[in-house]
Amino acid sequence: MGDFRFSVNVLGLPAPGEFAELCRRVERHGYDVLFAADHLGMPSPFPVLVAAAQATERLRVGTLVLNAPFWNPALLARDVATTDVLTGGRLEVGLGSGHMKWEFDEAGIAWQGFSGRAERLEETVTELGRRFAADGFAQQERMREAYGMPVLRPVQRTGFGGWGPPLIVGGTGDRILRIAARHADVVSVAGAYQIKGRPPGSFRIGSAAETEERVAFVRACAGERAGDLELHVLVQMVLVTDDRAGAAEEVVSRFGPAMTVEELLEAPHVLIGSVDEIAGQIHRNRDRFGFTHYTVHGPYTDVFAPVIEAVHRAAG
After folding, report:
1. Whole-model pTM?
2. 192, pLDDT greater than 90
3. Closest-CA residue to 56 (of 33, 82, 75)
């Protein structure tokens, strides 16, 4: 298993100076990656990532995740390549199938069933790899020669068949996880499950048993690639407290009886306890599930920072 990595998922955008300082604080805290989401009402991801890279020295940046049906692959290839160049090869590209129907409706994009969205995701992955590998557009060859214009392509050669940045694909269903196992460098085993019979976007937290089964499914699908995959988890809640059981009981009472207190404390997508207890849980999760990359949402940036130090300290 690889070393631990930790990241932050930015949800809002403060003033430019405040955002630059936020990025530098993320870097000082020891985080490895700053992610931007791809949702209406949130900042456009690629400008955020370029600004974050310019404000920092080593921090990697990425999308978690782009909704593939939102994007024309040719234009997305241009944005990915441009961002990878401007960030000095620090970009990681997360792609998903999209799950919020209301966003499609608001954007005027036709909503497809799950199979159609999954198919669009894999088509996008394949097309991006093809475009990254191409030697530019033949129609621009004379212009490139006349003006010394280089072919626009990513700096990195790790993901997309060795022609682009590292690729992250995440989900819970068989179809998406098969795509991840075939193509991704990082597989995000999602912890949010659509509640049956409820509108799209109505979720519950997955249990440890469900997560364990999903990880086993990914590994089986990946075959010989399984040992090369980085397994990622998006943490939905971080509660640092000296009363682990009491805090979990309060969460269960607030959000309903979908899980028992014991199940909530065992779930890898929720971290509750003292700094050392959470660090211990992260180490146990690596042994049980193989998770080595944890992302927390932006509001937990500072509260989770001591956990990063504790995890590394315990790892020696």
Report:
1. 0.95
2. no
3. 33
